[in-house]
Amino acid sequence: MKHQISVVTLxxxxxxxxxxxxxxxxxxxxxxxxxxxxxxxMNGFVxxxxxxxxxxxxxxxxxxxxxxxxxxxxxxxxxxxVEPLMDRLIQAGGTLMRKADAPVHGGFRGYVAxxxxxxxxxxxxxxxxxxxxxxxxxxx
Amino acid sequence: MKHQISVVTLxxxxxxxxxxxxxxxxxxxxxxxxxxxxxxxMNGFVxxxxxxxxxxxxxxxxxxxxxxxxxxxxxxxxxxxVEPLMDRLIQAGGTLMRKADAPVHGGFRGYVAxxxxxxxxxxxxxxxxxxxxxxxxxxx
Lengths: 140, 140
What we know:
The structure is a homodimer. Chain A has one domain (7-60, 71-124): 2,3-Dihydroxybiphenyl 1,2-Dioxygenase, domain 1, CATH 3.10.180. Chain A has helices at 15-25, 52-59, 82-91, and strands at 7-12, 32-33, 37-41, 46-51, 70-75, 95-101, 108-113, 119-124. The model of chain A has no long low-confidence stretch (mean pLDDT 96). Chain A contains three helices and eight strands; from the N terminus they run βαβββαβαβββ. Chain A starts with 6 loop residues before the first strand and ends in a 16-residue tail after the last strand. In chain A, strand 2 (32-33) and strand 3 (37-41) form a beta hairpin. By secondary structure, chain A is an alpha/beta fold. In chain A, 21% of the residues lie in helices and 31% in strands. In chain A, the strands form two sheets. A four-stranded mixed sheet of chain A has the order 1-4-3-2. The first copy, chain A, is globular and about 40 Å long. At the A-B interface, strand 1, strand 3, helix 2, strand 5 and strand 8 of A face strand 1, strand 3, helix 2, strand 5 and strand 8 of B.
């Protein structure tokens, strides 16, 4: 079987608030948007920010009230880029979860939640190469 | 800014139970594993299945008791592959969330939760091409 994830979908409550976090914070541009979903073309897959009620209906499962245990990471090319990006994300409606510091496994990282509580790790990880198209390869 | 997610990390409670879902269900092979995390090289990024307590400590946030609103999708090449893969995932410890059917936006899909409640959509979406390396491109 292919090691493949096609879409990461995040349930959101307010499309405009969420959109601002991703466009103004990360500086990303939607590839498609309507009144209930925005798609973002990522590095080999698609990110969807989808009205929470619609996602719950599609999944046939109601979501819990608080974020569960998962996170998404965006890696940057140098340690110096971590905190400025975290600051931009917070200015764009995000919430600080953990100030950036150096984990024992190396690199440098902090966490910011998006307006719906989805956790984003902003990291510099020198062991994991990122190619020109943004494809990330595991390294040690 | 690059449209890039480096890692998707799922918090898990039992490493062996979770591992079985991904190896026997999806047929994937870890690229790294120790007693608290397994990494899987995906299509342009890395999937991590990480002991929940360790992820919570890293994020500086406790997780809610029930899954919140997000999902991951694995797309297959034909409609005929959707249900057999869902069956394999259930045999490997997953739980059926929604039987496969045809959504209004086209294609064919169902949902299975992994042993920790993380939602996986198994889908055939003929509008979204997948290249030889598993990279998925948004299409309409």
